[in-house]
């Protein structure tokens, strides 16, 4: 690729070149045959934006209000785990980007920077993502901790009672990153990606 990346696809290509394969596959891969992953992209291709023409575009304003918070565009950074696998500054840098663009930062409970580190690093409006764990005390503790660190809403993820069977991670023998937000709360030993959290620690199943 010549020069600076100019779109998301080119950033992805750059990431593929610089990241260790295990980490690139973690960020880019999906579960099983990756039908849903492909469909997520295809779905966007089916949406077209219809331009309005011969209108005044001298002041373009995409700002809106989400849960009472003004944002420069209807964008919330989707919570995603382990940004330090991609860059040493991790979620602190991501939140800084959100603050610079005045959009909302969604922080995963599986962040590699702690809730406190992200909170003290910038003034982006922050939402905190969590699951309902079997250990309700852990869930409650994390919600209160987010609240006391200035997070303004909880993003409750409900679609992962079990982690998908991510075949690239299996092949790469993906190592789980340290769950720093949980240190002192549950065992955060670095183990195979498939044992940890999803089993013993706490996810609420539907059974
Ligand atoms: C590498 C990666 C890690 C993710 N980690 C989380 C997570 O920790 N918590 C969560 O609720 N969703 C997580 N997600 C899901 C995203 O928040 C989002 O819902 C999903 O990627 C669908 O949006 P997209 O089609 O724009 O990628 C993750 C997604 C990716 C790609």
Task: Describe this structure as you would to a colleague.
Its cofactor is FMN. Keywords: Oxidoreductase. This is FMN hydroxy acid dehydrogenase domain-containing protein. This protein has 207 residues and is α/β, with parallel strands linked by helices. It has a domain of 119 residues. It contains seven helices and six strands; from the N terminus they run αααβββαβαβαβα. The strands form two sheets. A four-stranded parallel sheet has the order 3-4-5-6, with helices on one face. A two-stranded antiparallel sheet has the order 1-2. α6 links the parallel β5 and β6. α4 runs parallel beside α5. The longest helix is centred in the C-terminal third of the chain and has 13 residues. 22% of the residues are buried. About 4% of the residues have low confidence.
The global form is globular
- Unreliable stretches: 194-202
What binds here, in terms of ligands, is: flavin mononucleotide
How many distinct beta strands?
6
Largest sheet: 4 strands, parallel
Q: Please report the number of helical segments.
A: 7
**Radius of gyration, in angstroms, nearest whole number:** 19 Å
What's the order of the H and E elements? HHHEEEHEHEHEH
Distance between the termini: 49 Å
- What would the average pLDDT be, to the nearest integer? 90
Approximate helicity band = 25-40%
Structural class: alpha/beta
Major sheet: arrangement of strands: 3-4-5-6
Residues in β-strands, percent? 5-15%
GO molecular function: oxidoreductase activity
Pfam families: FMN_dh
Protein name: FMN hydroxy acid dehydrogenase domain-containing protein
Organism: Solanum stoloniferum
